[in-house]
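Recap from last week: sequence in, structure out.
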Amino acid sequence: MDTNHNYFLVGLMGAGKTTVGRALARRMQLTFVDSDQEIEARTGVRIATIFDLEGESGFRTREEDVIAELVKRQGIVLATGGGAILSVKTREQLRQHGTVIYLRACTEDLWHRTRHDRARPLLQTADPKSRLQRLYEHRDPLYRETAHIVIDTAHQSVQKLVTQLETEIDRHKTHENLDR
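Predicted C-alpha cells:
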C-alpha cells in the first residue's frame, strides 16, 4: 500500500467509477473522493442544477478547477466525472499526479446501468441511448490516451474488479520502476 500515491478513475457515466473507487480506496487504505460530489458540496446544488444555470461549459470550468486542486492531495482514489477528460489541462494533471485508470464498459452495459437515472443531465434527451453511444465514440479515445491502465468492467463483481485492479496497479508500478 502506497499512501502517497494517487489513483484517478476515468470513464463514462455508469462505468462504476464511484462504486469501484470506494472499494479500491477501502482495500488500499486510501481516501476516496468523487469530483462530482465535491462540486456539489462546494456549490450546495446538484450537478443538474449547475448544468441548468451555467450550461455544460460552466460546469466543465468548475470541474477543471476542482480536479486541479484535488490531484494535488496525497493518497487518494478520485472518481472523476465522465466528461472530465474533455479538458486537456485535466488530462495532463491526472497523468502527472497519479495513476489513471480507465473503467471501460460497452455502451449497452452503460445504458443498462444509467437508463433510469434522472440525475444525469447529458442523458435528458429524446434518445438518451444514442446520446450515450455518441459520448462513448467521442470520449473513448481520450480515456485511452489518458489512462495508464484500462480495465473492462463488463460482467464482473466490484470485488473481482478491485482484485484485478490491484494486479494491474502492481504490474504498472513494476513497469514504471523498470523504466527509471
